Amino acid sequence: MADASSQAPAATNNPAAETVPVQETAQNEQPTENGAEQPEVVLPHDPKTPLELPVSPLEQIHEIRQSIIEHPVALQYSCFHLEHNGQRVNDFVQVSDVEGLGAGSELHVVEDPYTEKEARIHFIRIRELIGAAGDRTDTAQGILAGVSIFDDVAAAAAEEAEKDLEPYDFDAPADLSVLLPKELPPAPKTVKQITLSPWNPPPAQWRQKGHLLYLSVTTNEGDQYQITGHVGGFFVNMSSNSKFNPLPRTDAKAASAHSLFTLLGKISPSFNSAFSEFQQYANKREPLATFQIGNTVPAAPWLVPPASSSHVAHVSDQTRSQETYLLGGAENTDSLRDWNEEFQSAKELPKETIQDRVFRERLLAKLHADYNDAAARGAVLVARGEVAPLNPTEGRDAQIFVYNNVFFSFGADGVGTFTSEGGDEAARVATGKDVLGVKLVNQLDIDGLYTPGTVVVDYLGKRIVGQSIVPGIFKQPEPGENQIHYGAVDGKDVVAADESFAPAFGKLAQQLRIKKHAVWDKENKRYDLETSVEMKGLLGTDGRKYVLDLYRITPLDIAWMEESGPNGAEYPHRMTVLRPELVEALGKQKAREFVAAELQKRAAQKKEANGTAENQEKTEEHKAEEKAEEAKADDAEKKAEEEQKEDKKADNIDRIDMSGFKFALNPDVFSGQTPQTEEEKEQLAKDEQEVRDACKYLRDVVIPALLRDLSESDISFPMDGRSLTSLLHRRGINVRYLGKLASQCDGNARLDCFREVCVREMIARSFKHIACKYLKTLPFPLTSSCFSHLYNCLLGTGLNAKPVAEIDESYRALYSDADLAFEKVTPESLREEIQIETTKRFRFVLPESWWTQIKHLQLLREISLKLGVQLQAKKFAFTVADAEAEPAAPVQTPAEATLASASSSSSKKNKKKKSRDGSPVSVPAKVLPPQTFSPDDFVNVVPIIKDSAPRSALAEEALEAGRLSIYQQQRKLGEDLLLESLSLHEQIYGLVHPEVAQMYQTLSQMYLQLDQGEAAVELAKKAVIVSERTFGLDSAETVLNYLNLSLFLHHRGESKLALGFAKHALKIWKVIYGPDHPDTITTLNNYAVMLQSLKAYHESRRWFEESLRVCEKVFGRQSINSATLLFQLAQALALDQDPKPAVERMRESYNIFRNALGPEDKNTKEAEHWLEQLTTNAVAVLKNEARRQARPGLRLASRIGRSTPATAATAPTTTPSVPPPPPDLDKRTIDELVRYIEGGDKKKKSGNSGGSSTGSSGGKKRAGRGNPKRRGGASA
């Protein structure tokens, strides 16, 4: 096996990388490089050329089997088994368990007879493999889900790198085309058509003879073949379109093969060459960009290409409608799974060894992904009314459904459970909290405690909960028995406390920091529960203990509930619980305080002991003298014992006993509990005070700390709602505090960006709630009209101040009982509703005329992502000026395309038109004034999914162990552990997963620190692709990964290529946030340094000036950040042969440093030194110009050294020379000064710090210090 480090970057390009060998990751045991075997795999069609596959002894045989299936040489095989020494090998045994299997031994691929299921799978696989499968209409994942545009960006960057640098337009508006994939040429066709035959399925008498499928193939030569799928393989039969005869042909066209792929090569002379061309076409793209996403929900873009694009073209494919049969079989039994049994059986798998844990976690990850997909598809059908309820006589919100063995219910208070908590609003929140609680319990992985598979889906205004069916959940309890065995049974009137649940619930409570506490039922009987009374324990009929209703694992935020909103606005519900992250952070803070108190106590004890010892020393001094001789004799003997005692004493001092520390909160305080005795009341009051302290910690410590970190630029500013929410949740702050956060930003210019993102998020969330209210009961075909009207009322009033809802009259007639309240919405009423929602939910009053201050494009993106809307790309005209500047290009909608094709039909068809007068396309639409959005712009809605899948603990342990080893200077061990963690991430999650994207990013940065630039760049590319496909093309993670890739390429010396990726990141940034985001200061600065390394001094100067402009806007002109950028700009101006402004900028920088940091600070002194040098040389340049002007015939040379922007752009790398200055001035020429500024002067002081040198000749070291805060921040 090759060295693991050399395979790190490339390993993940191969789909078979999911079976990378796994070695032990214990820190004291370094992964072995020699543990792999390399047996030879002998293929039936080519036994003389065996495959060599690197195999770990810990791998299972089915993993080798999968590697063979995906190997380019063995593509045609899917139905086979492996034999060793003539003996069949079980697919589920480890390689090490196969006797004699090792290096040099042979594994034979032996073709198996097909079953109907195997034949169907083989047919599907071959269609995908040869590119014959058409587009799929996916109900759950949306249009172009999981798309990546990295190849387009890389091609554009490479093309731009070959050209001369062009000036960048900083004022250009955001361009939505940056989010759309480029058009591709059509793929080469391998066959004209391959589909199931009309004669399929085989009749009974032929099924008895081994017939499984009948296929129809039309080759590129135009010949049509009818093919029989048989238990022994595939053969051409004698059927035609009108005659059925499934027996093998006996003429010249007869052919047969075990694999359909091989048969196609036999019947079509051009197939093999066409397939080779197709492979070359497919291989032009990055493998990760096309790799199938199996273990996560792919990101669905909110903006998709117009209907005319080849990316969304709907092509004819007869097999598309047959895929349900191909995937599930005739009875559709293949797709029916007992989800609950699968989840719990996987949880019960052994986890003693590393390999056990890998297998278990990989199976659980795959199970959660399959379940999430099935639940999302079922939820969409439930929301559309296509699944019959189990209780049709109940009200709509109380109805329950079962589809695909998933139990569905609405996230609404259909049965009055949450009446006292806020009704439907409380029920909606509770379902979201429940799925978060299930995720936490799954992550803790407590033995003996089980959770149902849980997913929450938001779709078209409805919240739907999908749960796996717990055995016994529908069982009616016997009289006198409770269905629930632990926790509240009927509301809170009846409480159960089965002691058999206490141990498992106690472990859960300890992990979640829940205090054991008393609760009382309606008869005031006391029960001591380990967890919240709302959290229920159920003993399933399978004997397992299930935990349900995990929506209250933390206490109520009583400080929020006791506080009144603006104008007396009441919060919509009482489900305002604290976040688990806050409780955990407070627990750690309390632990630190406990440790500090213990250390202080020990220090006091030690001081007291020392004082007593001094007194004793004086009184016993004469005794010591008498015993001096005796002590000398015993010294040698006691020395070793004393050392041991000292060591033990030191250990005891260093090790603090934490058994006395306890921190836990009672989640049931402030929820109507009624203690009976004074002692109980006193304990409850104490518990209440602890919860109040937690609320105080959130308000007085956590929130101010976040604002302080943002103000001081210690953390990155969020770009959009998603990154903002993620930041708040990591800190333990609920989203309801957005109003408080925005209010506390007032008056601090540095936090204007954060305040803007907060306000935008509040508006977007308020709009989402309003839209859901109108969408909830609306028939599906009318939703596009609702979306377009609400969008126009919010964002389109600049073009049309009085938008009108576009409703197809035929739909109005069809759905006569539909509630079309949305058409009565006006811009004014919508603004009022948004203000009410924002005041009620966030306790924030939007500024007057707030709708005139919004950024239309950014808000459009936010609300579309929150509602799952997919919009058709066009130039959105938000104002009259937009419409006049660039009118929207006419886009042919699907309905128009249908009409266009219908117009060419014959007169015979037109005679039937009267009978179709009720169809939507036949009703003429009213002519309306121009509006920003039309119903045709809204092409799809995707479900928003919240799942309960846990992260892999094993992969994270290996990552932390690797980080720790590198920190402890154990570099080789650290690198091996990092590689092991990467391998584990890929094996457990698959190659395309958000966690893998994060791993690629983390590992790429570590490799850069370890001076492995090639590996860093490769991993950074993968991070970009996977983040595009899982987070989204325009996510904050994608922007960050593009910027990292740009920096890594620059470090590798490919600065021109790096610029292309950085530009793309900035274009996405404009779409997400708009211009002037605080974090772009560093990006602009780094870009300028890259340009300096390319000697494009004038363009570099422009980027420094832009960086300074943004910095001044955010931090102010007199800030240390601005001083740092002024310092760099002055150097850039000097390089651009503009000495006078260079001196002015350096003087300004020096003055700011002197005023802020004092004259003795190193930054001040450095700026002073540079000011002297630049002043001296500026004087020299001016004198030389004056001398030249004084000479006759040399007036044309008077502007030497001063290039105009035009000349600088065309020749950025030329640096004119200047004659030396007079003897009394600085002796260096401008060329020497340029070398000095670039870091090439050997006499330069080594003590210069904090970004003082503006980019060395390679620019490598400077780019890493692009953050202007670091100079001032370090000394401040």
What can you tell me about this protein's structure?
The protein is of the alpha+beta class. Helix content is 47%, strand content 8%. It contains 43 helices and 24 strands. The strands form seven sheets. It has a five-stranded mixed beta sheet, with helices on one face. The chain has a five-stranded antiparallel beta sheet with strand order 6-7-8-9-10, covered by helices on one side. A five-stranded antiparallel beta sheet has the order 12-13-15-14-24, sandwiched between helices. Strand 16 and strand 17 (494-497) form a beta hairpin. Helix 21 crosses helix 24 (827-842) and helix 38 packs antiparallel against helix 39 (1162-1190). The protein is globular, with a radius of gyration of 36 Å. It starts with a helix and ends with a helix. The relative contact order is 0.08. One of its GO terms (molecular function) is mRNA binding. May associate with the eukaryotic translation initiation factor 3 (eIF-3) complex. It is found in: Cytoplasm.
Question: What is the beta-strand fraction?
Answer: 5-15%
CATH superfamily of the domain at 947-1185: Tetratricopeptide repeat domain
Query: What is the CATH-assigned architecture of the domain at 947-1185?
Result: Alpha Horseshoe
Give start-end ranges of low-pLDDT stretches: 1-35, 887-918, 1193-1228, 1237-1276
Q: Using the CA coordinates, give the radius of gyration.
A: 36 Å
Supply the CATH class of the domain at 947-1185: Mainly Alpha
Total count of strands: 24
CATH topology of the domain at 947-1185: Serine Threonine Protein Phosphatase 5, Tetratricopeptide repeat
- Structural class, from secondary structure content? alpha+beta
Family: Belongs to the CLU family.
Subunit structure: May associate with the eukaryotic translation initiation factor 3 (eIF-3) complex.
Biased composition (Gly residues): 1248-1258
Biased composition (Basic and acidic residues): 1224-1241
